[in-house]
Amino acid sequence: MSGFHTHSRCLPSRCGMARLLLTTSLCCSVGIVASSRQAKAAVTVSPTEQTFSFSIPAQSLDGALAAFSKITHVQTVAAGELTRNVRSPGISGTLTPTAAMNVLLGGTGLSPRTSGNVIIVQKAAANITLGPVRVGGTVAHENPTGPGVGYVATTTMAGTKTDTPITEIPNSIYVVTKQLMQDQQPQSVVEALRYTPGIYSESYGTYANGSNETGGILQRGFKATQFIDGLMMNSGSSGETAFIERIEAVNGPASVMYGQTNPGGMVDISLKKPTKTPLHQVSVGFGNWGRYESTFDISDKINKSGTLKYRIAGIGVTQGTQTKYVDYHRVGVLPSISWDISPKTNLTLLGMRWSRPFGQFCGLDKLYPIVVMPPF
């Protein structure tokens, strides 16, 4: 019994010890939380980023800087020769030290530079006044018989047989440039002129065995007179666009410059000539009516100085037509040599050769007997 009573007397002591431990742990927890909050609150903010209430009257700059440092506890550094006999306009309001310093130095020719918690007063950088900038250049002259630039040509030889801007020629002149032909991919001169004002350009069915050469070009209601590099063309030997650099259409009478021509106008075709830069092109194509074609175009200089140049272009075409047994087969080559005698004198020798196995339209594939009855 005595042991029991002794144990019962010890119970309150153990309960008190448990309460003491629990209270201590709670206090420690609260202390840790409080310490954490205080640590967060104790994160310091740079003085140059805080805001302060300023009331500094206009006075000497030395006095204004001293008052500024007293309010913000930010050290200011300035050379004596910069602040001597300089007045500050003062400041009033709540601002950051950097913004306040900009106001204090307003109109003094000085500027602040912040380095950590130190503001350095220095001479403001002077404005740099640049001298006049003149941009000059010259527009590259466009070759009046060349491929043109983009879709628009500015000069022409067709109007006056001289290198003249199109805007100075009274005739209506339209130029189909090389770039336009490359984008539209016409297979003949007829197709290349379809979008030219004042011209009706369509082929005559299977004219010339489907070559679509020159049979359907009308200018202002009259059949167009066609020229190659200013010389009248008597055949359709330039119908394929593989040999053509540009096409110029002159609407209206042109007999004064070209002799006897139709009153509707004339079409002048410029063939490919040697280029100043090397050119090496090969293409293969196909189209409707079983058309298959291959072309090549090569140009380069012959001598080192580049005064002698050559160019050779070729094409091979085969295709059918909408007429049975009427096919179109054609092979052609265009060689040329150019000699730059002087900067203003050039001699170009150019030749063109075509081979067309079938040159006439013929739609009969068999011979049928014809019975002629004698008269009675």
How would you sum up this structure in a few lines?
The protein is of the alpha+beta class. Helix content is 21%, strand content 33%.
What does this structure look like?
The protein is α+β, with helices and mostly antiparallel strands. The protein folds into 2 domains: 70 residues, Phage tail protein beta-alpha-beta fold (3-Layer(bab) Sandwich); 201 residues, Ferric Hydroxamate Uptake Protein, Chain A, domain 1. It contains 7 helices and 23 strands. Strands 18, 19, 20, 21, 22 and 23 form a 6-stranded antiparallel β-sheet that branches. A 5-stranded mixed β-sheet has the order 10-16-17-14-15. Strands 3-7-6 form a 3-stranded mixed β-sheet. The longest helix is centred in the first third of the chain and has 40 residues.
List keywords for this structure.
6-stranded antiparallel β-sheet; transport; Ferric Hydroxamate Uptake Protein, Chain A, domain 1; Phage tail protein beta-alpha-beta fold; receptor; 2 domains; disordered N terminus; 7 helices; 376 residues
